[in-house]
Model the fold of this input.
Amino acid sequence: MYAMTGRGGAFLEFRREYHRRRADLERAFLSHASLENGELVVNRCPACGNERGDDAFYNPVGFRFVRCSKCRTIYMDPVPSSAALARLYNDPAETFHWQKGESTVGTVKPAHEERDALLRMMPSVARGSLLDVGCAVGAFLLSAKEQFDRVEGVELNANTAATARSNGFEVTTGRLEDVAPGKRFDVITMLQVIEHIVQPAETLERVRAMLTQGGIFYFSLPAVDTASFKYLQRDHVHVSSYGHVSLFSREGLESLARRTGFRVAAHEFYGGLDVSLHDVVSRRIMPGQFRHRMAAYNSRLLFSSNFVEKVLPERAVKALLPAGEQSYQRVIFSPA
Ligand SMILES: [Zn+2]
Done:
C-alpha cells in the first residue's frame, strides 16, 4: 500500500491538470519524433549492455519499452535523444509541476526515512562527507547533515539548486562532472534519479572515481520484479512518461555493478505493493481512463476507496494481485 498525499480536492485538481499537460506534451513529441530525424535514438540495456530486448509494450501515451533478454531490466527503446529529453524536461508543462505542485519550494521537510535506511543498511558510514546527486531543494541534505560531518549537493535545475543554497547548503548547479575536480566523498547518494538516465554506466564510473577509499554509493530506484508491475505493466506509474527510461531488475543491478567497477554490498525492496483498492476497482470498471496511483478522474472513488482500504486488511488487496516484491529498491554499491 502507499499513502496518498493529502490536501484533498485542490491537490487532485493540480495532479489532473499536470498529467493532462504532460500527456499533451508527450503526444506532440511522439507525433513528430522519429529515428530518421534524430529525435529518437536506438537504445540498449542500461544494466548489462545487451542489445536484444523482448516483450515489447507501449505505455498509454505511446512510448515503447522492452525487457532485456538477459537481465530482465526494462528500458525505453527507442528513447528520446538527449537534446530532446532536455527540451521535454524544460517544457512549461514540467515547470508547472515544480512551481505549483507538491515540490513547491520554500518549506523543505527532511528526508529522515532515506537517511535512516542508509544507516541501517551500512552502519559503518555514519560520519565523513556526503554528496547528494540530484539534491533538488535539499530534503535529504537536511536530514543527512545531522549525521555527517560535511554534506553538499549537485542539482541540474538552476532554480531548484538556488533554493537548496538558500536553505544553507553548498550546491553545484549542473551534473556530477560539474562538481569541482579533485573533490572526494565518503558517501555519494542518488535518490530516485538513476531511472531518468538513459545510459547511467558512465555516471557510475564517475561516482566511483569520486569516492574516498572505503567510500560507498547509495541509491534508490523503482523496482520491476514486483507484484504491481506484473499486475499493471504498461499502465504502471513506473512507465507512465518519458521520465523513466531505465528500470533495473535485481539481476540487472548486479550487471551494472560489475560493468562499472562496483559490487552490490546491500540491497532491499521497500515501499509496499503500490497498488491501492481504487487502482484495482477503477482499472476494472473504467479501464480506458485508468491511471495508476491517480484516480484523478473521480475524487469520490478515490476517497471512498481509501476509506474502505483503511478498514480492510492489506492481505485483502494483496489477494487480488500476483506475487512479487515491493515497488522500490535501495542499493549500496561498494568499489569492487
Ligand atoms: Zn540487461
